[in-house]
Amino acid sequence: MIAVSCQELTKYFGKNRILNEMSFSIQENTITGIIGRNGAGKTSLLKTIAGYWRSSAGEIKVFGHDPFNSLEVSANCIMIDDGMYFQETLGLWDIFEWAEAFYPNWDQGLAERLFAYFQFQRYWAHHNLSKGNKSTFNMIVGLASRCALTIFDEPTIGMDASVRADFYRALLKDYLAHPRTILLSSHHLEEVEHLLEDVMLIDQGTCKLHMPIDELQMYAISIEGPADLIREWTDGCETMHEQKNELERLHRIVLRNTISGEALEALNSKGVEVAKVSAADVCIYSTNARKGGIDDVFTDDAFK
Amino acid sequence: MKLDTDSLAPIYIQIADWLENEILNEHFKPDEKVFSQYKLAELFNINPATAAKGLNLLSDEGILYTKRGLGKFAAANAREIILNKRRDTTLKEMVVDLAAEARRLGVSEEELLEMVGTAYEKRKGEL
Q1: pLDDT in tens, A141-163
Q2: CA–CA separation, A95 and A92 (whole Å)
Q3: Domain closes at, from B78, B101, B118
Q4: How many other C-beta atoms are found inside a 10 Å radius of the C-beta of residue B77?
Q5: Which of B35, B47, B50 should one mutate to test binding to chain A, selecting the residue with the greatest count of A CBs within 10 A?
Q6: Distance (Å) from the alpha carbon of B87 to chain A's nearest alpha carbon
Q7: What's the complex ipTM?
């Protein structure tokens, strides 16, 4: 079963096209990581899926319905982000009551256990929480609501490292016990990749890559060695990334992992180092729109 | 339980290797049920789909078999298959690397064989 499908989904804000003819589908009961640089369109896509925003063109279906203005989708979907707003007169404990009334699968027991574990107080006001505590509380609401489609948009903002680790573990355990479709956006793929089944890389409002995480982890390799040898060997190859060593003696290139084992072994015997390219780095190299690197910004003679 | 995320081997291969070691150590005996994809996911803190890929790899090699509705079980000859596979691939690759390194360092064939012999002797008592 397909949980979310888009056909040439497009969204304009004024003259700005922020989603550009996106077509993809997300299988039910999978955890998909939504990855992309700042301003790539991650949040816009998630808000459109959650039904907060109407699309400008193309088609979007969540459990077979257009999510905008759909009560069906609204009852089966929750989106957790740092902009969540609750009635300011409600204490944290009251928010649970409200959530229980709205979400049919709400697990009050889980909410209470997480609440106690993270040492919240019932009477605390949501708008007075620290950034990290706000994210943690929102995460509890997101997990306990057990929505068929659960969207976490940068859920760990402000959380310290130990709370982040707890959150990812809680997410995995609850998913194992109660499988559902989860979309998780993050700037830190290396922190979440173990949780994911699929990854979608968004770049300039388009879906650049969408594949199982273990394929992405094997997508590219890097080879590094004497500059002449590397240049000669890669002549005519399509590379994803090139990096000159400061000393210009060594050269490192990244390319699609389609080279035979024998060819790699032959390179290796000539002193060329072959290494794995992490999924996070594949994402960076696949979305590098800027020319050159940060070093090219600094033109002072002192660096020459 | 820790996985090596820097390793060239994908996580699901590492899961398959771990299960093979458990079978070799007789933590899973012939015709005994092995961990489910969910149990493995919890144990290694990974997505259950990744764990399932590791299990399926072993099924394809005949090391595990499936009982419908009950899960995956270690084959009666699982140990034998794993030992043969490791002899044919893992050990052979290690020997190739060993020979290459010996040549680089200018170690003669006799010297290398002597070193191997000593190391083998030392581990006599082990399984």
Answers
A1: 999 999 999 999 999 999 999 99
A2: 5
A3: B78
A4: 12
A5: B47
A6: 20
A7: 0.85
